[in-house]
Amino acid sequence: MKKILLFVAMVLFCGIGMAQQERFLVFEFMKVSNDKETNYWETETFWEKIHAERVKSGEIKGWDLWSLKPGGTEQGYQYVTVTIYDDPVKALSDGDVWGAAKKAYPDMSDEELRKALQDGEKSRELSKRMFLKVIKTTDDNFKMDIGTVMRMNFMEATNGKTNEYEKAEINLFLPMHQERVEAGTMSHWALARVLMPSGSKVPTTHMTFDMFKDYLHYFDAYGRNEVFNVDAETQMKIDEAVKTRDLNWTYLGTLKKTVK
After folding, report:
1. Which superkingdom, per the lineage (predicted)?
2. Which of 5, 59, 65, 115 is most buried, by the most CB atoms less than 10 A from its CB?
3. DSSP 8-state code for residue 158
């Protein structure tokens, strides 16, 4: 299976320059029952040190844990982890997690370490994994701190209109988001293309991320309706642009842990 994934990675990214600034993301959506919240928090705290070792070794560029809203037990997922890479092959490989775990917890025996890793798996259900490539962002120096709010928009490009959709995001919406960042009403925005899973039955082809310092910052922007304050000509362009995609779902995420 690992060899197959590596082959898929090479096919997907053939001809793409591996520039330092390229970012690839692995989203892992978790379902956590109410009675396992404490156990799950302990699990991610345990893994946090392991991810720190993976960053030191260059295996990953970073790792984040977000709690999700609405997040009810009948409303999908309660948490998502985001692992950041600068190489698609690394993103699709298993990596040396065991080696990182040994470095993070040198005083634990192999048996103790294996048990801790296995117990962690029982605290949550890993329900969905997505591989993405970031294709455009605003120009800013935003640094995510604990408490950062991220609005995650799950987009599905209309059949046959993937290029039109991406052009609309980049040529129409990105300049608007850049203005918002410069005005201080948004911290960061990004557009990412879903690489895997793919196919006609997959309801998400892209994701966009609107980031804010905290919930006060988020509600201030949307509460004053400045997001939609555009002239008539621009509104007509927006009306045409939204026909190139469906906004299937939105989550609000709150940053709980981060390793960079």
Report:
1. Bacteria
2. 65
3. P
Output the average pLDDT for the chain. Answer: 88
**Residue 139 near residue 187, CB atoms below 8 Å:** no
Per residue in 85-112, pLDDT (tens digit) is 999 999 998 899 999 999 999 999 999 9
pLDDT, greater one: 29 or 10 = 29
The Cα–Cα gap between 105 and 48 comes to: 11
Residue 141, exposed/middle/buried by CB under 10 A (0-12, 13-18, 19+)? exposed
* Contact residues for 88 (Cβ-Cβ < 8 A; gap 6+): 9, 12, 13, 24, 131, 133, 195
pLDDT at 3: 45
> What CATH number does the domain containing 241 carry?
3.30.70.100
- Residue 66 sits in which domain range? 1-7+20-260
Contacts of 32 (CB under 8 A, 6+ apart): 40, 78, 79, 123, 124, 125
In the block, residue with structure tokens 């600034």:
21
DSSP state of 227: G
CB contact at 8 A, 23 and 132: no
Question: 142 lies in a domain?
Answer: yes
Strands 62-69 and 125-137: unpaired
Residues contacting 9, CB < 8 A, separation 6+: 88, 89, 91, 92
Strand partners, 217: none
In a domain, 221, yes or no: yes
73: confidence class by pLDDT, cuts 50, 70, 90 = low
Residue at 13 is within a domain: no
Query: In total, how many domains does the chain have?
Result: 1
Residue 15 lies in a domain: no
| Residue with tokens 């989203």, as numbered in its chain | 27
Q: Is 163 in a helix, a strand, or coil? A: helix
